[in-house]
Amino acid sequence: MKKIAVTLLLLFLGLVLGGTAFAQEETTRDEIVAKCKEAAEMLLADRDAGIAEIANKEGRFVWKDTYVFLMDMQGNMLAHPIIPQLTKKGALLDLIDKNRKKPKKIMVEFIDVAQKNGEGWVWYKWTKPHEKGIFDKFTFIYRVGYTDLIVGAGIYK
After folding, report:
1. Is residue 101 part of a domain?
2. Alpha-carbon distance 32 to 20, whole Å?
3. CB count in 10 Å sphere of residue 104
4. What is the value of pTM for the model shown?
5. What are the residues whose beta carbons fall under 8 Å from the beta carbon of 96, sequence distance 6 or more?
6. Per the structure, how many domains does the chain have?
């Protein structure tokens, strides 16, 4: 009986502790800011290498539950590690969030923040991959020096 109880306890602990190892870790706002600034530094040092690294879905700018993307001030997506097809769409200025009551053009907001402040957070409604529903999303936007490049990364709350 004692052997069965110990086996069940070990099995339970294995499931609980093992399950947390597979749970997707949430990114913090500080991590997002740091990764965006790191990506900007890389782009300033070597633009082509920076674009390639941001576009790499196995690269250092894809981590935990988010990723860095790169766009320009005209609304063109220049690198996106998760949906690379966006780089072939041209300007995405008409991309509207999922807020039914008060929809907003999120790319226009990204550009506005980059032009006016150089950096900042944009809140909007968006879908989550592999989940049903519409969620609050916060994306940090960071202008790359005095260029027309913008990097960003977001979190859901």
Report:
1. yes
2. 22
3. 15
4. 0.83
5. 103, 104, 105, 106
6. 1
